[in-house]
Amino acid sequence: MSTNRYDLLIIGGGVSGSALLYLAGRYTNIKHIGLIEKYAAPARVNSLSSNNSQTLHCGDIETNYTLEKALKVKRAASMLRNYAIAQPDSHHIIFKYSKMVLGVGSKECDKLRKRFEIFSQYYPNLQLLDKKAIARIEPNVAMTGGNKFREDEVIALGSTNEYTAVNFEALARSFVRQAQLLQGKNVDVHYNEYVTHIKIEANRFLVETDGICYQTRALVVCAGGHSLKLAHDLGYGLHYSCLPVAGSYYFTPQLLNGKVYTVQNDALPFAAIHGDPDVLVPGATRFGPTAVILPILERYNLKTLPDFLQVFRFDRRVAKVLWDLIKVSDIRNYMLKNFLFEIPVIRRMLFLRDARKIVPSLRLRDLKFA
After folding, report:
1. Residue 270: which CATH number?
2. Minimal CA–CA distance to 278: which of 253, 245, 243, 312?
3. Which end of the chain has less Cβ packing within 10 Å, N or C?
4. 341 lies in some domain
């Protein structure tokens, strides 16, 4: 039976909130657990399949990860994989594709060779691929069209028989479903409940939505950009601001068999471009993401503008942080380029140049804004 009093209440039904719901129910002695989600189903924002890279990051081909961070990510990825493949609907949740990180030019190739020397002992399936080996896995990456190899120096680090893609939307639904099946636990999920206010009273959190007040001994907020807003409402994290960065993707006909990432620019706090199959769109390859700063907490939801203005908390300290970012030429140029990627008339032509780093023979008419 549903109740409004909990030992643990989770705000946000994305993959993080739903994972916590399952873990708390499955592996702790917490009896009464609730989850509040403002939409009518789990995973409707960041965890929606169209809003993320659909990648199971393991740390091997993420060139901005140190070995220490990579091994932590590898452990977490293994837990996710083990859960997903044990589910009866695993074929809707997790997928096997080849994967590689592509180095183009002598500098990037040298970086990957050094990375392979360090990482290969921890990732036994990781291979160092020359141009011919790349061509066997991803012919459109190594070739320029016909039977001619691309002229620039390329190598890759990759593997061919691992789970590499995840539908995080389906994963979140699975976590919720499995949590509600647990015996001896009261697990409630409340959809279409928008949290308006949180306060602390008599050692309990009072979480108010339209017409309902939930009480809980412990509270966890997994609500994306809204998490900081709710923290501010409680007086926490007032020294933090939020600068939302959203990405876009482009579709092409099927040009890649698996995931192809590129070497990360260490000066940029943004994901490097990659291409891969879309797990929900058969016969298509998806390239991206771009990265553009937007004054909203949810992409395509202008109603979140007031919430952004609350958490942005613009003052001299925020202005200094912004200036420190803008004065770095790599970041400044990247931000400008990605802003141009959002302009309908020119965005395909500009994006084509970046995408050709992965597929040299890519044509303008192949690109379609996703």
Report:
1. 3.30.9.10
2. 253
3. N
4. no
